[in-house]
């Protein structure tokens, strides 16, 4: 593999035989390397062959900004989820990793965030919520950070969305006053929550989605 772009010491972009870009990750993989150099394949920990160059670019930019340990931890969570849920959108590598990185940093700073959809998520998506709980345990074991149960709900939302046909949009409109039981009126609870999940942004942490735990 030849390097097409060096993002940091641990992450590079390469071009495969079909001229498609791939993101390659490994500790010290690109140390003292330049564009055009060959990779030491013994240092490769993960190769991301995503569906589009746009996703490759977004993932590469993200990986250049976060610790390798966070990415490998999220990769473990995604592998676990794929084993339970089946096919998931490639964009999950970006959205879940970005969210977990911010969640870990918030926790380290003692910033508590409440998930106003937690009750609905537990009830309607128990498999995804269980995976969210397991993700918390993985983060605790590998990174030494204890995430709140609310984060299991946020992770579950990413997994729900990754099973849909479209990526999470960047912009949302949210009515915080409509965060109670969705099983009212003529709209089913599942359909209502799916509508609201589909409105969540990629980062899943804007002010209008969350309420501080002390509020």
UniProtKB/TrEMBL annotation:
Q: Which SMART domains match?
A: CAT_RBD
Give the record's family classification: Belongs to the transcriptional antiterminator BglG family.
Q: Where is the PRD domain?
A: 65-169
One annotated GO molecular function is:
RNA binding
Q: Name one Pfam family in it.
A: PRD
Q: What are the top taxonomic ranks of the organism? A: Bacteria, Pseudomonadati, Pseudomonadota, Gammaproteobacteria, Enterobacterales
What SUPFAM superfamilies does the record tag this protein with? Answer: PTS-regulatory domain, PRD, SacY-like RNA-binding domain
What protein is this chain from?
Answer: Orf3
A single Gene Ontology biological process assigned to it is: positive regulation of DNA-templated transcription
Tell me which species this is from: Klebsiella pneumoniae
Which branch of life, at top level? Bacteria
Q: Which InterPro entries match?
A: BglG_antiterminators (IPR050661), CAT_RNA-bd_dom (IPR004341), CAT_RNA-bd_dom_sf (IPR036650), PRD (IPR011608), PRD_sf (IPR036634), Transcrpt_antitermin_CS (IPR001550)
